[in-house]
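Design a sequence for this backbone.
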């Protein structure tokens, strides 16, 4: 299957993408991974992206699109893929459509993970990360450490990252509503969108997603 995954920050896209890609036996292609790979490998696109990032500027759409198209040209994506974080706006969505049309293929579906805005703020603003290892993540409500402010894994101090502060989270949501949410309407015009609730246990959300995608496959 060829799928685009969309949803606001805090919807659990990364988590669901990993499970879905494994269940569907297709590569999970995330924008973050594309940037890291191109920069670490020193590709021309990576050098361009790094120059913009080092200057504190947004990476232009053309650079991101180039990275995505290069990745989609890889042999493991020939039988399908799951795109996470791309396309980020309508310009990128149109570019993806043009790429797919040129290769004689189409998207099978656009999976929209729906989460109420207050829940997004609660999820992200409540995160606490270990200063010793950022992979150790807790939550003031959903995953409390045994001792307040102390990492269960290594005893390190837990803190709130600056990007997780409520005002920063709401700003990220504003950017999502302004730039990315319009692609949902764009894809609805192509009858590609399936919307599911991203509330509840991870396994429940994954089952909803798989059921929704199975319905798309059978249409």
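Sequence:
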């Amino acid at each position: 299957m060829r799928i685009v995954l969309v949803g606001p920050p805090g919807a659990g896209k990364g988590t669901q993408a990993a499970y879905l890609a494994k269940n569907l036996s297709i590569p999970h292609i995330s924008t973050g991974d594309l940037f890291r790979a191109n920069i670490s490998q020193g590709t021309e696109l990576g050098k361009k992206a790094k120059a913009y990032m080092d200057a504190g500027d947004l990476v232009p759409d053309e650079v991101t699109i180039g990275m995505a198209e290069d990745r989609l040209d890889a042999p493991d994506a020939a039988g399908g893929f799951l795109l996470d974080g791309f396309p980020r706006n309508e310009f990128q969505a149109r570019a993806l459509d043009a790429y797919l049309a040129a290769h004689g293929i189409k998207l099978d579906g656009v999976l929209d993970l729906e989460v109420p805005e207050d829940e997004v703020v609660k999820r992200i603003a409540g995160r606490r990360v270990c200063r010793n290892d950022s992979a150790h993540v807790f939550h003031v409500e959903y995953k409390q450490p045994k001792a307040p402010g102390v990492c269960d894994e290594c005893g390190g101090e837990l803190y709130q990252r600056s990007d997780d502060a409520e005002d920063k989270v709401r700003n990220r949501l504003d950017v999502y509503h302004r730039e990315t949410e319009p692609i949902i309407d764009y894809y609805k015009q192509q009858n590609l969108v399936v919307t599911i609730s991203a509330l509840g246990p991870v396994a429940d959300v994954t089952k909803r997603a798989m059921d929704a995608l199975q319905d798309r496959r059978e249409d």
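The chain has a mean pLDDT of 94.
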